[in-house]
Amino acid sequence: MTMTHLTTPPHSIAVEESVLDSPLVETLRRTLPNARWTVVPDISSLAPPSLSSHDPPLTIVRFKGRFLRSCPATKFYHCCGYTILHFGERCTIGCRYCILQAYWNQPHLKLFGNTHEMFTEAASWFARYRETLFRVGTGEFTDSLLLDPWTGFSEQLVPFFASHPNAVLELKTKTNHIKRLQDLDHRGHTIVSWSLNAPTIVAQEERGAASLTQRIEAARRCLEWGYFLAFHFDPLFLFPGWEREYRETIERLFRSIPPEKIVYISLGAFRFMPALKETILRKNPSWKLASGEFVTSPDGKKRYFIDIRVTLYRKVLEHLYSFASDLFVYCCMENTSVWEQVFGFDPSSRGGLPAMLDDAVKRRMGIGVDCHSSAISLLPGKCQQPWGGVSLPAPIANLP
Q1: Which helix (H) or strand (E) is 365 found in, with range?
Q2: Are the beta carbons of 83 and 379 closer than 8 angstroms?
Q3: Are 234 and 174 in contact (CB under 8 A)?
Q4: Burial 190-223 (b: 16+ CB within 10 A, else e)
Q5: Mapping DSSP to helix (H, G, I), strand (E, B) and coil, where does residue 43 land?
Q6: Which has the closest alpha carbon to 181: 214, 215, 217, 218?
Q7: Which CATH architecture has domain 66-87+131-368?
């Protein structure tokens, strides 16, 4: 599936026999009547050239793992306690910096056809832990709404979360694929969020995504339909004119969106595994954004030096707070030293970042007000608070 622009539908679909009768396949047959279909016993039986060609198929498979899992964080950084609903993998928007390139070397999109099992698993967790607030998102390993015009998956997800008093859904996207959200009974349980960036980054590095104007307009429309919103300034890049351009993006955002409807905003400086830089440079030898000052962090990723990250965060935070000082803004995957320099406190002193985000949901959305715990400790995955949720020892706190 080649995404030259966001309105390009999949041309070919390969589906495993075991999920041939799934509602997802039924919907795709209806919305993509001209697509080429291939049915196989197992997706691995497809010849590798079929999956790595310039126009690989959308694959529909049976997922055999856990659908709900914790954010893949590490103990060195403060984790948000986000719960991932794993409904598919890979993305064809084609952002040049995308970290997913380092996880998978095949370009084809993969969706999981056994959605009934996914919803059964999620419902079981929500019912079993009724005093736990689940903040769930689908945008970790793919874009939440990339294929929604054809899958209609939001029409199942949004009402499902509306029926669970201790769960909220976040649909994270760089698209403007919101049409199917308009008439859904969300009951205030769904956050629609967008990744935003500086105009130069959007134009040069996110060419397959919706424009900045399109994203903000889509957010405005979702607001009219009663949805809550969130925004992610992640990754933040250091480049000539970065402060002026990020200020411009923030000004454009608040010309259309009232701050009181924003549940949270995240900030995250550009970071990457060493293999990602090699992958990007093979495709774009002249790429400059990873040629600056980077240091290897305790989790093995390359990051800007701490003083650079702190400068980025402080300036963006200053511009955000100039519009609303009560916005809930947090750093994604940062250590205690950075938090103290940017915000003036350690998240652990306020119960930890998951508890802070839970509180933002309760205050802005009125969801989960009777919940007394976060899902961070329940689900399988890597999301941990630094050293058990207490402040890092001094020698560790100053690591990159």
Answers
A1: helix 353-365
A2: yes
A3: no
A4: bbbbbbbbbbebbeebbebbbebeebbebbebbb
A5: helix
A6: 218
A7: Alpha-Beta Horseshoe (3.80)
Identify the band that residue 139 occupies on the pLDDT scale cut at 50, 70 and 90. confident
Six-digit token string for 11? 């041309």
Identity at 225, one-letter amino acid code: W
Tokens of 338: 């950075």
The rounded distance, in Å, linking the Cα atoms of 197 and 249 is 7
- Write down the domain spans for the chain: 66-87+131-368
Element housing 58 (H / E): strand 58-61
Instruction: Check residue 382 and give its pLDDT.
Output: 54
pLDDT at 61: 96
The residue type of 316 is V
Q: For 224-262, write each residue's pLDDT tens digit.
A: 999 999 999 999 999 999 999 999 999 999 999 999 999
For 298-325, the pLDDT digits (tens) are 988 999 999 999 999 999 999 999 999 9
Question: What is the pLDDT, as a whole number, of residue 392?
Answer: 27
